[in-house]
Design goal:
The protein is an alpha/beta fold. The chain contains 22 helices and 20 strands. It is globular and about 70 Å long.
């Protein structure tokens, strides 16, 4: 369809948004204007805290009524009428929200009811908006679960959120957003928790549906390669202002602004990993100079040994006449990790990566097999009794929001384990926490904020600071940089690389992004269905993959 045939469905004009904190108003969105047409996909890119998510929430009138104020105009075309979403009141909001305009949020687990089955939560959208006959709705849900590349549909339908992986939960959220066939879909980092193969499938699915249904899509992401693979145009946001706005791939290949060029430069690439990653500020001010990565002292001593590890789960019935069944999430895995090394673990969502990490951290009891730390066996009970061992093995989880206490300031959340493990004397604790915040790219002012007052990327940086604060020997990173924009991701990857070199810190790095794994890891394990299908040095596996599944993972990376 030609652009001249497209009908304008959304127009944002001079949007300004401010939030109040302790009596002080801060302007988050300063002046944003753009338009969206039917059948068009517009990408919104910017660093964490740039205002891109806040601006998208205002389109659905989801900003809090107290503590925030907005000005400007957000015009949406509904049945031939122009409606200003900032002025809209109940009950008209509920007629539009979720039906005519849907949204896929960044953190899937926080958007689902933990005590309701996933299929029923998708069906609830149809019930609320009175779509389809009651007898038809279950089949409608099943068809959309298939569309978003979920397998074993009966099990997924009857599963509770805690029984599914992060990637599976995100696909449930995408099904919830798409099933009403909205006019506009807003996607806020919709593929963040997905492995690259599923990400490619979801992006292709979104692209197909947008075009087939003549739908408009606003796609928010920190990954410029992802945006370039699905969007027609792009908006680059910095400090609440649009600094670049144009068609793809022109902006991607010939950016006019230094900030856009810096965003592109910060992303890890599969063609180079011997240099430290640049940061946005260094690229913009011209101070960046290529520096070789820190040389690691990988010691022959095995700090961790995993032998014949098996973990199985009972899954609930998928139908009235079916029976509970047992599946092996981890199926006889064995490997070792040397002190000071960085081991990457990659694989599809549900392949067993997180289950393996949880076993090593003592959060899951394996059915069979053994774990050894410094040549001594350990298990859940030993981790509970041995405070020193528990401090030595730290984990950064995939979902930063559920990892933090919602009623505790993030500064206190970082300080708590430091105090418990007596890392530094009491009088030095505040300065120690401030230094940790600075290391992960946060300021002292963030310490007094609650988790809900931070962006997804900022929350993940808090979790990284908390894990590093107890000076661990083994750091397990479960998709720990997934929610971060490319500049902060570069800072964290450089920091982990530096710490592993200076402190002989051993890292197990779980990620769906092979380019990130290539940047930081020495070795890599490829998991599929709970089994190791390939293992070797990072250069060997990336440069000369032997298993067909590994080759598929590499082919699925956006931008290749």
């Amino acid at each position: 369809m030609k652009e001249t045939d497209l009908t304008k469905i959304l127009e944002v004009e001079h949007l300004q948004i401010s939030f109040e904190h302790n009596g002080v108003w801060s302007e988050v969105v300063r002046d944003i204007s753009f338009e969206l047409k039917k059948g068009q996909s517009l990408g919104v890119v910017g660093e964490s805290g740039s205002g891109k998510t806040v601006a998208s929430l205002s389109i659905l009138n989801l900003l809090p009524s107290s503590g925030s104020k907005s000005s400007g105009r957000i015009s949406v075309q509904i049945d031939g009428q122009s409606i200003d979403m900032l002025e809209l009141e109940d009950p008209m909001i509920y007629e539009i929200r979720g039906k005519r305009i849907s949204m896929v949020f960044q953190e899937p687990s926080s958007r689902l009811n933990p005590v309701r089955k996933c299929g029923d939560q998708v069906k609830e959208v149809l019930e609320v908006h009175n779509i389809g006959l009651p007898s038809e709705r279950r089949d409608m849900v099943r068809s959309y679960l298939k569309k978003v590349a979920l397998e074993d549909i009966d099990r997924i339908y009857n599963a509770y959120p805690y029984e599914l992986s992060g990637g599976q939960l995100q696909r449930i959220n995408i099904a919830i957003a798409l099933i009403t066939k909205p006019d506009i879909i807003i996607c806020d980092e919709p593929t963040t928790g997905l492995d690259v193969t599923t990400q490619a499938e979801i992006l292709a699915l979104l692209d197909t549906i947008v075009k087939a249904e003549n739908m408009a899509m606003l796609f928010i992401s920190h990954d410029l390669d992802v945006v370039a693979s699905i969007c027609d145009s792009i908006v680059v946001v910095k400090d609440g202002i649009i600094i670049e706005y144009g068609h793809l791939p022109a902006v991607f290949h010939r950016p006019k602004e230094a900030y856009t060029r810096a965003l592109l430069a910060c992303k890890p690439r599969l063609d180079e990993n011997q240099y430290a990653l640049p940061t946005i500020s260094a690229v913009i001010d011209g101070s960046y100079k290529r520096q070789l990565r820190n040389k690691k002292s990988i010691i022959s001593d095995r700090i961790l040994e995993v032998r014949d590890l098996t973990v199985s789960f009972w899954v609930g019935r998928s139908g009235f006449l079916s029976k509970d069944r047992k599946i092996n999430a981890i199926d006889g895995i064995s490997f070792s990790v040397n002190r000071g090394s960085a081991l990457g673990i990659v694989g599809a969502s549900g392949s067993g990566k997180s289950t393996l990490a949880h076993c090593i951290a003592g959060l899951i009891r394996p059915d069979a097999g053994t774990l050894e730390w410094a040549n001594r066996p350990y298990d859940q009970e030993k981790l509970k009794r041995d405070t020193s061992l528990r401090r030595s093995i730290q984990m950064i989880f995939q979902d930063p929001y559920s990892s933090l206490d919602p009623i505790m300031t993030v500064g206190k959340a970082v300080e708590e384990p430091i105090r418990y493990h007596h890392i530094v004397p009491g009088e030095e604790r505040l300065k120690y926490v401030e230094d940790l915040f600075e290391k992960v790219g946060l300021s002292r002012s963030h310490m007094n904020r609650m988790p809900h007052e931070l962006s997804g990327g900022q929350r993940q940086r808090v979790c990284i600071a908390r894990a590093l604060g107890v000076r661990p020997e083994l750091l397990i990173c479960d998709e720990s940089v997934t929610a971060l924009d490319v500049s902060v991701q570069a800072q964290i990857l450089n920091l982990l690389d530096q710490l592993s070199a200076e402190l002989e810190l051993t890292v197990i790095f779980i990620s769906h992004d092979l380019s990130v794994v290539y940047q930081i890891c020495d070795e890599v394990i490829v998991l599929q269905s709970g089994q190791i299908v390939e293992r070797g040095s990072i250069d060997q596996v990336i440069g000369h993959p032997q298993d067909p599944y590994t080759r598929q993972l590499i082919r699925s990376i956006p931008g290749l």
